[in-house]
Amino acid sequence: MHLADILALRPVPAAGLLMALTRRCPLTCAHCSTNSLLTSEEHPAEWFARFARTIEREDRPEVIMLTGGEPMLRPRLVADIAATAPTMVLTGGFFAPRVPAALAGVAHVSVSLDVHHQREVPQAKVFRLVHALAGRGTAVSFHVTGAGPDDPYLARTIDTVRREFADRVPMLVGRVRAAGRAQAWAPAEERAPADGHRPCTMAAWPAVSPDGTVTACCNQDVIDHRPVPGHLRLGHVATDDWRSVRTRCLTSPVLQAIRTGGPQWAAGRSDGGYCGTCRTLGTTAERPRPAAAFLEQQVVRAQVGAGPEGFIRRYGEARFAELVMLGRETHAV
Ligand code: SF4
């Protein structure tokens, strides 16, 4: 499953499921957005495995994206989840260059590459890992992060990866966000336009937090703070099943409104910032929605039409958006 095919699904409600299997991580990267350490929180694997077992073939997500912390600290859980639906693992690659057996059934492996990770896992080891995975037929990509589009590290690393892998391995290029351990030093950034009347694609895929709570978005503030606002809480992996989580995601009027026109459009006011306004919404949007489903479909269609590059232009480093397409022509879907 090529990176571009996964990102093409990102605007489609409930087409994917994000699962943070643990907050623990053996690496201590200075920019870690989840503030992960080996001693961080971790909850029973059975909660996550139970939820994965509720996924039925006929209404399974088209992709499950496993994150953390470091998801590969729970290899058995990764293998169990990968047996239920096509699965992507986002990893820091602490095990490089060895390929863990748990990755055998995984559809896509994306490895982090940035100046902070490279201090923990040398680039040469990461490259050997990605060569080994690609050699076994696993789809691979890099998640490259820098300080901004002009960061010389990005230009240098992108050039190195393109040469090393002959333009066959795609890259998702992003920026260090002011979250987790980077909160104290990374610049805060307003991602939404001033009027805020743009759909929030982040409300499309349910996201499982390390504590098992299922939220309607993967915004780090929502993942980290409790209680979760009612309209953003979809359930818990210890007690709910995929079908009910998916139904709540698809049919909640307020989530439909956020996905259609953004939280400020849904609220009919624009004084609290983009996500700030979202967190104050009730379980029903204030704006009337006489044709909510139809409107949402039009908006989703437009975003899907913009393709994976359109998604990166909005949520990643726009200058490097086309890198998500590398290797797409030669990739067997
Ligand atoms: S607007 Fe709401 S749904 Fe979208 S990222 Fe912000 S908090 Fe999440």
Automatic annotation (TrEMBL):
CDD domains: Radical_SAM, SPASM. It comes from the Bacteria. Residues 21-118 form the Radical SAM core domain. Pfam families: Radical_SAM. The keyword Cytoplasm does not apply. Gene3D superfamilies: Aldolase class I (3.20.20.70). Keywords: Iron, Iron-sulfur, Metal-binding, S-adenosyl-L-methionine. InterPro entries: Aldolase_TIM, Radical_SAM_PqqE_MftC-like, rSAM, rSAM_sf. This is Radical SAM core domain-containing protein. It comes from Nonomuraea longicatena.
